[in-house]
């Protein structure tokens, strides 16, 4: 699903034109993507490479093996927040569940029973991997729901987030249910491993904000100049009108004096 994948994984708008045609041995486009990748189109793999089919948890185990010489068993990192208390039964359930073998999200799990603990392990592995592949290690739950068929998720997959509070954190900020990968953030809420795309995004947003502030400042300055010009024009117009009225009054007084003198000269009684 092209449009959803672009939003989730931060793909460029032209990746269908610039990336997919250059690798026909890896990708194949099925369907019509439409002008804005909103059509009914899917991106498929034409070949499978086991070397690339490793989850973030498996890659972490490989890195630790390179450092200490012994590869630890791949498993989830449980990171409960401060003050969060689990009852004894819940702690035992989490301990036993973590002891189960790790099920890779790329493994063929066709024979797993949906209600088995292994299926739960596979479900958490898929959700963990999807969030690990995202730029900010978080995603809106409705967006994940768009891939239920591709990831073989049940309609109640979102309940897994509340069953594993040490792995996921659910936020309702902005009225949107968003799931966050706990291990990806530190105690201050900052990403531990920041993707370079985030740096570019923040720089772009900062430039846009600065340009918007300059635009608003220029608009405010122009409005102030326009208000001053209007006030000056009104003041000048009122002064001109006052001068005209004073001139009319002086002219009328002179006319009255002239008429009075003329009447006296003619020997007539003034009215």
Overall description:
This protein is mostly helical and 271 residues long. It has 3 domains: 1-47, no CATH class; 50-184, no CATH class; 195-234. 51% of the residues lie in helices and 8% in strands. It is built from 9 helices and 5 strands. It has helices at 2-9, 15-18, 56-68, 88-99, 117-133, 141-145, 148-151, 159-163, 196-265, and strands spanning 27-31, 41-45, 138-140, 168-171, 178-181. The strands form 2 sheets. It has a 3-stranded antiparallel beta sheet. It has a two-stranded antiparallel sheet with strand order 1-2. A hairpin with a 6-residue loop joins strand 4 and strand 5 (178-181). The longest helix is centred in the C-terminal third of the chain and has 70 residues, at 196-265. The termini are far apart.
Task: Briefly say what this structure is.
The chain is mainly alpha-helical and 271 residues long. Helix content is 51%, strand content 8%. It has 3 domains: 47 residues, no CATH class; 135 residues, no CATH class; 40 residues.
Rounded to the nearest angstrom, the radius of gyration is 38 Å
Low-confidence stretches: 267-271
Oligomer: single chain
Distance between the termini: 103 Å
Largest sheet: 3 strands, antiparallel
Biggest sheet strand line-up? 3-5-4
Task: Tell the overall outline.
Answer: elongated
- State the helical fraction: 40-55%
Number of strands: 5
Mean pLDDT: 80
The tally of helices reads 9
List keywords for this structure.
3-stranded antiparallel β-sheet, 9 helices, 5 strands, RNA binding, PORR_domain, PORR domain-containing protein
Topology of this structure?
Blueprint: H1 2-9, H2 15-18, E1 27-31, E2 41-45, H3 56-68, H4 88-99, H5 117-133, E3 138-140, H6 141-145, H7 148-151, H8 159-163, E4 168-171, E5 178-181, H9 196-265
Antiparallel strand pairs: 1-2, 3-5, 4-5
